[in-house]
Amino acid sequence: MEQAQNIVTDLPLLRTKDGEDFDIPVEGSLGLLALGYVGLMAWRQKRHAVMQQKTSTNPPVSNETPR
Amino acid sequence: MKRLAKKVLLIGWDAADWKSINPLLDKGLMPNLEKFITGGVMGRMATLDPPLSPTLWTSIATGKRPYKHGIHGFTEPDPSGEGIRPINITSRKVKAIWNILTQYGMKTNVVGWWPSHPAEPVNGVYISDFYHRAKGPIQEPWPMLKGAVHPAEMSDLFANLRVHPEELTGAHILPFIPNAEKVDQNRDRRVYGVAKIIAECSTIHSAATYIMEQTEWDFMGVYYDAIDHFGHGFMKYNPPRREHIPLTEYELYKDVMSAGYRYHDLMLGRLLELAGEDTTIILISDHGFHPDHNRPTVIPTEPAGPAVEHSPYGIIVMKGPGIKKDETIFGASLLDITPTLLTLFGLPVAEDMDGKVLVNAFSETPEIDTIKSWENIKGADGTHPADFVQTKEEAREELQQLIDLGYVEDPGDNVQAAVKNTRDENNYYLSRAYINGGEYESGIKLLEQLHAENPRTIRYATRLAHAYQSVGKYKEARKMVNHVRDIEDRETPGMDILEGNLLLAEQRYQKALELFQKAEREGGEQPLLHLRIAHAYLQLNKLQDAERAVRKELIISNEEVNAHHTLGVILSSQMRYEEAVDAFMDAIGLMYFFPAAHYHLGEALLKLEEYEKAAEAFDVTLRLAPGLNAARQQLVHIYEDHLQQPGAALKYKQDFQDNIKGTLTIVSGLPRSGTSMMMQMLEAAGLPIFTDKERSADESNPKGYYEHEAVKALKRNKKWLPEANDKVVKVIAHLLEYLPMTYRYQVIFMERDVLEVVASQQKMLVRDGKRVKEDVLPIMLVEQYQQTLAKVKKWAAEQPNVEILYLPHKEVIENSFMQAMLVNDFLGGNLPVEKMVQVVDASLYRERGETAVV
Fold first, then answer.
1. Least CA distance to A30: which residue of chain B?
2. What's the whole-model pTM score?
């Protein structure tokens, strides 16, 4: 599993043909999948990051009665 | 041998077809493929029968036909005996290219090849075809099957590179189904089906790109099955819409196929980028997929029924150092891939491989070395050890997982029936593979077994009827056709076509035509039906009708090679040679490896007095069919009589003699001219006779006919000739011209007064109970026979491989000894003449000239 983690952390940055940073869409794209493992991992990273951001800005609602 | 390629990337796109690709290329929608083609060579790749992907991809990887490599179908009996499973790599009996390369220490990667499970321990990374299948909801565990990855320690890494269908979003699905939101997914699972195919091929692509980028490699083979899966699910919705396809479904799913191809183009772009300019890249498909009006409207309800959607030509594109640029190659077969790969790596091609090196793809003709076989070369080759077996528990566990994955149906309680059905099915495919490879005897034997065990299975009986017909066993074929008619509960156009084909082979052309026309009336347009009608008309010498029929066939399918060729033959028969040349060129453009088309093109050019072009056509014929002495004879004629190049003619004359395979003694003449008597004399002399004794002696020929059923079909079937080598064969005068030039013939031709011949035939027909007027001489027949005799004399004088001895029938009876002496001299002088004479029975000379009825 360690190797699998490395793939994610060692990923190169995706750039456009003009050398610009590529803004990875959270919903993914066929183009990203066509890039192969690099595109897949970058997309998953993006999803993960967005998910974490959502979780931190909107903490889960607790069912417990406020004290 | 010099290694020509630094690295080779072999990409498989199952079922990719130029007919689908070309319109997308024209619109600029597959730019990566366009660039790839421009930088290399492209062509069509002929498939094999049966067109089943596991068998075909194994032939691609081994260069061998299925009866050599052992992979025959989609499933096989599970070794545990408890069910069936998808075909396993352990059933492959020979080495694949990656095993040979492993033996030579080359770094070899394989991804997703079909079949390839359990992963073989090659010198590299190997991902099996059980790796990428998705199952269940995304929240549930998705364990990877044991043995899916070699080396096993990389399993976790590759498990993480898999794409689950539920990961996908509208961004992935909408290019395929733009109105996906209109689909009620509780009732229609096709949107999920598309997502599953996208996810699975993305999984393969993800693993392949990782291996290409992160490992050192010499050879990389990666196989994508998605185009085939999209095809079986959605080609029916591909534009143009056909009447039986509901408009709403058409509107929803009409873009799936083009989106599938475009997605593959995107993936191809990445592979090309990762491979780099110094890698030789080959893109292939195992068969095509009908995208047009040839799409079947009904899929047979049999295990491999969907294969009817496949078309016989796949694609090949090849690019790299030493490969030609922007050219079309012809004559490629999927059997040629492994021999070509071996040549690229500087390794010898095995003589037991069935393919050839695609030399016409190379800028310079490559050096090709051969060895007898790779199978006996010892060393670590990355195959599983001979004692590799799964335990019963492992097999059961694997089977259960495959059932869960939806790979195989749960055999339920009737496991034994499932196992038997699978075994029968695979034997059926094996029989077809034998027949496709020209191994008729083995194919027929298997089909006979299957038919004996399953007499009511129509496809076994139908295939057996075809096979019998192919080897000239018309009686057996007839029996089988009648059997099919008995077990079918209704008459179908298919049955009429089956019988019509047999009638064509039996040379009963009018009856064949009537059945084909009935099939057309009752079954409507069917592939190849008009071509069959054209063949019947051609044989009946109704050339205009034949031309009309074949042109109808070409409207249905302009890519039908045989239709173009047949049109050429029809036009030549009408002496419209310029048009015939065009038709033959069209056939050759579609399929270069077509010796008959080149030969007939040469004949037409000869008639047009285009001698150099004709010589070129005959020369190509010989390159494709080196044993065809008829083409050599034409070249001798052109170089001697027209181009005044005796030196060139001499070379072909010598080659002609070198290509003679044997000698047959032929006894010939018009029917009832004493041929059976001569056969009897030669038998008495101790010469071996080629006869099946099918036709028994009767009042007309009390000592027997000495015939062979196969010989009667000489015009269509010449496969029996090797068996008849060094034997005496009876061939009637009308068929002599169909004897191939690859044998030497010593012909003893019995000459009898034509009036006597006809009178004798009339009497024979009367004796057989046929309705003929014994006292009326059919003058037309007499004239026809006289023409036949003149034709035989011309033919015999022109053939360099024919010696002929004309013997007067009357003399043989009245001066037997002298005539037997002549025969003895003709055949080499060692025959016991006295024994030959003893069998001559003058009492059988019943219709003498003076008594012949006029």
1. B172
2. 0.82
